Amino acid sequence: MPLLLSFALLLLAAVLLSSLAHRTILSTAVLFLAGGFVLGDGVLGVISLTPADDSVKILAELALFAVLFTDGMKVGWPQLRRAWRLPGRALGWGMPLTLAVTAVAAHFIVGLDWPESLLLGAVLAPTDPVFASALVGNEKVPHRLRHLLNVESGVNDGIALPFVMVFLAVCAGSGDLGVGELGLELLLGLVIGVAVPWLALRLERLRFFAASTQYEPLNAVAIGIVVLAVSQAVHGNLFIAAFTAGITVATFGPRQRHAFEHFGELGAELLKLAALLVFGALISPVFLAEIGVAGWVFVVVAIVVARPVALWVSFLRAGLNLREQAAAMWFGPKGFASVVYGLIVLESGIAAADVLFHLIAGAIVVSILLHSSTDVVVARWFDDSDETPAWHRHVRRLRGRKGANGET
């Protein structure tokens, strides 16, 4: 009950402040994260949760699944094929380089062994543009930049998973890395993400079936739930299945995509905010103090150095202008994939699990605070409709009034 009431009150506050948030650096993501922090055991003790609670992992996975499904809806296979060059650079070069730079920082700054450093790099490599929504959803931002960030984030969550599991097995001293099992999991996720939506959309075209206008938005919801259930039943990768299913619906069911768009965005937003509240409740002042000076130095390097350096190398001679490249380098927020993988590491029982989880949580907190508070600012950077600063326009209007009144 305290958790539900806390979520309801914070949601009401977010709704009342949403107009202001769209115009300023105020962020609803930060509101829920901070709310969870204040209401958690470390401060007020209203919400009592531990990382071992099943509800924490389940909510994080559901939120990530919903976000990836709705993100996949924003692109279709034809558009993906035509504009794959930039996302391909980000995934093929940027992500491995980000992993490597993060691992080097973890080894030399925190003193982790190389397997643990590489595991940490793999957990923090995926990006999540849901915390930069003002940038990804702003049509004044160049389409190729929005497409790049959206596709990259949707695909890199699933790509990072094999690396996380392999490095986790190495840290645990396991001789069986399970590469074949991981490959099968990814393949199953891909097949489910294509087959289930395609079959569902084909069924609706039969003469005996048709969705009413009232139920049309629920069509894609039902498809998503079936994809989720089947993936869990056969142990397919949930995140690959979610993003692929969204793309499949966008490709073969444009009507269903349009009907679901607003409804789906709101549903994903609710799950995202609930997951942020729960994650914030896991963080306490004592928890943050345990990260230590070296840990915080690593967090800063992981956020402001690793991805910028990696993407700068990846986009050499890619044709992006300075503003586009700078925005892509900066917006690499750590989100639900890192939360989920961090919980997997914590539950693994390896010797450095607690240290790694502290560093992961610290990086996610700093990333959410920084990226969610700067998305509006950077989005305005691309608005060339009127480059005159607001204060200058105000002074100019005052001077005009004085001139009209004959004042000097």
TrEMBL record:
This is Sodium/hydrogen exchanger. It is a multi-pass membrane protein. It is found in: Cell membrane. Residues 13-374 form the Cation/H+ exchanger transmembrane domain. Keywords: Antiport, Cell membrane, Ion transport, Membrane, Transmembrane, Transmembrane helix, Transport. One of its GO terms (molecular function) is antiporter activity. It comes from Stackebrandtia nassauensis (strain DSM 44728 / CIP 108903 / NRRL B-16338 / NBRC 102104 / LLR-40K-21). InterPro entries: Cation/H_exchanger_TM, Na+/solute_symporter_sf. Pfam families: Na_H_Exchanger (PF00999). GO terms for cellular component: plasma membrane.
